User: Fold this.
Amino acid sequence: MDVQKSAHAPSPTAERSRPDVTRRSQRSRQAIYEAALALVAEVGYPKTTIEGIAARAGVGKQTIYRWWSSKADVLLEAFLDLSEQAARAAGEDTHAIPDTGDLAADLKAVLRATVDELRDPRYEAPYRALAAEGVVNEQLGRDFLTKLLEPSLQLYVDRLRAAQEAGHVRPEADPRIALELFVAPLAQRWLQRSGPLSHAYTDTLVDYALHGLAPR
Assistant:
């Protein structure tokens, strides 16, 4: 028996009792996400604080500052995590808009899902908070655009380009401008609360965008 090796090797019991730092950190991070989202929904963004998030999550505020520099950063990451979890639970592909060969049907399906998300209280409060704060907080505004909005908009660009290749969209059309015909009105109506959000509304946006207003 190698006495020297056995003297220094950890016992199976020691291995089992050693704390899993990675798992503990992930639990803390998830608790912080949930606390940030809950507080924004309950008291609003201005009254949400790092101290409040820490107390709600059961962690020290130094833990939060070790990972994020501000409550805006916490909220943005928490919202991204929430969206990704929801997409996985629904079995949705977050990297592409479905291509069934019917562009109108595909766009309507995605926009209907977007309306459902915007009307969901779990998403509405943090999404509104991030959109509003991003107007006055330049760094958050850039992060909000690059991490949340741009990836979603690129999915529309990719789907419209595929439709161009299939001959369903004019080849000279700019997909980036084209997507604004249905995405921008929906965003404006939601932000300004200027009208009801419904599947019928988004279906109409797609019909107008794809077929225009001229008589057929």
